[in-house]
Amino acid sequence: MKLCLKFSEWRLVYYSLNIKKYRAQYAIIAYAKIEARWSWREEGFLVRHIRAVYPGSFDPITNGHIYIAERAAAVFDELEVSVLINPQKQSTFAMKERCEMAEEALAHIPNVTVNHFDGLLVDYMKQREARVIIRGLRAMSDFEYEFQTALMNRQLAPDIETFFIVTDAQYSYISSNAVRDVYRFGAAVPDMVPPIVERRLIEKFQNS
Ligand code: PNS
Fold first, then answer.
1. Catalytic residue numbers, as ranges
2. Is a pLDDT exceeding 70 seen at residue 89?
């Protein structure tokens, strides 16, 4: 059990110890808040609320990313697509553009939000009180990097879990890199990117 609680959590513990009438009820809530993130359902039930974070460069978001987000959002209560700076890659789109494209492309999934962060992923996860990292796998070639990263993240934050979701075969060859190359040289392949991204890619490479 974590003892490092936020003020709101200490307050729940305080109530659970001091208000006799509601002792049992507050004790349960305090325990639940400490062990995991729980929230009230409209019907009055206390339910566990699992927030997952799907981090990536999303430079730009592709239909492969959208597929992973749809599947993750169907499993977890809340999915936050987090546009992170990958220091190993130089980005084509600015952070604001990447977020805008992701927001529009994911607008059809009600429990998805888009955010951005600069720094260590595990720090961001803690800040957002999220315990699950979502990453997509297209092929075995992705696995080595993902495996190393997942182990590094576990070393840094043992409570945080990485979940891998396998892509659909139709998206297995799609990457943001490939998409940028295709559009940079004036070609297009159907069903690689959502319409907003296609428009932005054309604008970007026509003007450059
Ligand atoms: O879409 P990408 O470029 O494969 O995403 C990689 C990303 C941004 C998720 C990864 O580089 C990352 O987590 N960056 C944040 C820095 C960090 O936490 N590094 C420690 C793990 S090795």
1. 65, 89, 138, 176
2. yes
Q: Rounded to the nearest 5°, which phi and psi values hold at 112?
A: -115, 135
Does 158 lie in the same domain as 67?
Answer: yes
Containing structural domain, residue 141: 51-206
Residues 148, 89 within the same domain: yes
> Which residues have CB under 6 Å of ligand 1?
55-57, 84, 86, 89, 120-121, 149, 152-153
Ligand 1: residue whose CA is nearest its atom 14? 86
Tokens of 128: 């957002």
pTM of the model: 0.83
One-letter amino acid identity for 50?
I
Same domain, 69 and 97: yes
CA of 75 to the centre of ligand 1 (A): 23
- Asked if residue 2 is part of any domain, the answer here is no
Report whether pLDDT(26) > 90. Answer: no
Q: Are residues 37 and 65 in the same domain?
A: no
Atom of ligand 1 nearest to the CA of 84: 8
Alpha helices in the chain (DSSP H): 7-18, 23-35, 63-75, 95-105, 121-127, 140-156, 176-184, 195-206
In a domain, 1, yes or no: no
